[in-house]
């Protein structure tokens, strides 16, 4: 199989139309529905990280400048039963207004007569935001009657929500059956170029940093990246399932007992393939899951009873720096510890520093989603990475080599 590459995925992605491929006439005066990802973290009604909203701005500005009437749709959180005020997109519309320098009115709903009236009264260059699509169960079920109502007021569709491209929902995949052309926005196109391009054709040696609390949610990507990368650094809560698999004491650390055998299998597979898996050498342990807990640094094989691991220790960060020094492509997905608490942020910020350093020396560094992005932002190093992905699960699935339904549904070039 030497020299044979699974061309199916990159070919498919490169062949998708983006807004940049459309003529001015294709956009001028058109009612454009755009799926953005404004699923931002909120503290009450205050946005704590607006990365995703900022990332959507270039495509929106482009559409506005071409005289399109734009309606932004997105989900936020996981509403259980219908509308909930805490999941309203109000704060997102307000922040988007500030960033665009023009009013973004929030519609009271995402379907229905009031929305249709708002859309039909829009002039060229006007922009509104539809209320949370997940206030309807039909959104995630991609129910055709709902999709038809949702698409009804619009002429065409742009998907710029990489964060939900892995879901075949009404607002990501369903509407493409009713709206044509359906094309990608600039953000989605850039995400595919970096994430898919890096994994398929990235310069070697290649490393992946896989962190986060659960092996269960990262196991598929771990196995896929093991095939593609020379080195894998494992961090975060999932470490302790691996340590248990190696027969080491883990104290009261988070362990997924159902995945201990899986972790063993990953370690065996790595050995068979001649790949390097780096687990921590030392751990910051605490006597409680709290920002002000008592802490100590212990060797990885010496976690005391009654203590839980919440971060990597300094020897681990030093070993990671040595391992990544010669890497040309590095993908990071997930933090190294509970970086939300200052006492346990050194492992995560330490690896971010290492990535900033190797990027300045020519490596391509890709921060794949979620908490890793927040960590880069908080450490002030986000601008020093090659690419910061806005997707969590979507980044994972693309890295796993899966076809994303929200991408597959778009028009070919």
Can you walk through the features of this model?
By secondary structure, the protein is of the alpha/beta class. 38% of the residues lie in helices and 16% in strands. The chain has 16 helices and 17 strands. The protein has helices at 8-14, 24-27, 51-65, 90-100, 113-120, 137-141, 144-151, 186-201, 215-228, 239-245, 260-273, 314-324, 346-360, 370-379, 393-399, 405-408; strands at 31-35, 42-43, 46-47, 69-73, 105-106, 127-129, 156-159, 182-184, 206-210, 231-234, 276-278, 282-286, 295-299, 308-312, 329-333, 364-368, 387-389. The strands form four sheets. It has a six-stranded parallel β-sheet. A six-stranded parallel β-sheet has the order 11-10-9-15-16-17, with helices on both faces. Strands 13-12-14 form a three-stranded antiparallel β-sheet. β5, α5 (113-120) and β6 form a beta-alpha-beta unit. α13 packs across α14. The longest helix has 16 residues, at 186-201. The radius of gyration is 22 Å and the shape is elongated. Residues 1-13 have low confidence and may be disordered.
**Rg (CA only):** 22 Å
**Overall 3D shape:** elongated
Helix content: 25-40%
Strand order of the largest sheet: 5-6-4-1-7-8
Mean pLDDT: 93
Question: How many strands, what sense, and barrel or not for the largest sheet?
Answer: 6 strands, parallel
Would you report the number of β strands? 17
Structural class: alpha/beta
- Which residues form runs of ≥5 with pLDDT under 50? 1-13
Task: Assess the beta-strand content as a share of residues.
Answer: 15-25%
The first-to-last residue Cα distance is: 30 Å
Q: Give the number of helices.
A: 16
């Amino acid at each position: 199989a030497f020299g044979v590459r699974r061309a199916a995925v990159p070919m498919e992605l490169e062949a998708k139309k983006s807004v940049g491929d459309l003529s001015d006439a294709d956009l001028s005066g058109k009612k454009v529905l755009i799926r953005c990802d404004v699923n931002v973290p909120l503290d009450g009604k205050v946005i704590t990280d607006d990365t995703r909203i900022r990332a959507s701005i270039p495509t929106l500005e482009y559409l506005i400048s071409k005289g399109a009437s734009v309606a932004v749709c997105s989900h936020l959180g996981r509403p259980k039963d219908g509308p909930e005020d805490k999941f309203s997109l109000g704060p997102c519309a307000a922040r988007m207004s500030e960033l665009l320098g023009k009013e973004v009115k929030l519609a009271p709903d995402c379907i229905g007569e009031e929305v249709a009236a708002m859309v039909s009264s829009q002039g060229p260059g006007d922009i509104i935001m539809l209320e949370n699509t997940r206030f309807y169960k039909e959104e995630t079920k991609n129910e055709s009657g709902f999709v038809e109502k949702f698409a009804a007021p619009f002429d065409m569709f742009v998907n710029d929500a990489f964060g939900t491209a892995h879901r075949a929902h009404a607002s990501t995949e369903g509407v493409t059956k009713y709206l044509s052309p359906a094309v990608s926005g600039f953000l989605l196109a850039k995400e595919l170029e970096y994430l898919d391009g890096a994994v398929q054709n990235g310069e070697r040696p290649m490393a992946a940093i896989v962190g986060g609390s659960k092996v269960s949610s990262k196991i598929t990507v771990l196995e896929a990246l093991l095939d593609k990368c020379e080195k894998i650094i494992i961090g975060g809560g999932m470490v302790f399932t691996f340590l248990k698999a190696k027969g080491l004491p883990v104290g009261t650390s988070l362990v997924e007992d159902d995945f201990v055998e899986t972790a063993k299998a990953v370690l065996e597979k790595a050995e068979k393939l001649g790949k390097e898996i780096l687990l921590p050498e030392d751990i910051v342990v605490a006597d409680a899951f709290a920002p002000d807990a008592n802490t100590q640094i212990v060797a990885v094989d010496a976690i005391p009873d009654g203590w839980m691991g919440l971060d990597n220790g300094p020897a681990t960060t030093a070993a990671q720096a040595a391992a990544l020094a010669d890497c040309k492509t590095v993908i990071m997905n997930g933090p190294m510890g509970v970086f939300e608490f200052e006492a346990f942020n050194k492992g995560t910020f330490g690896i971010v520093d290492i990535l900033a350093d190797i990027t300045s020396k020519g490596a391509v560094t890709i921060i794949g989603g979620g908490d890793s992005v927040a960590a880069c932002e908080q450490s002030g190093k986000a601008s020093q990475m090659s690419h910061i992905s806005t997707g969590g699960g979507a980044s994972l699935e693309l890295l796993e080599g899966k076809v994303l339904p929200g991408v597959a549904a778009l028009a070919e070039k």
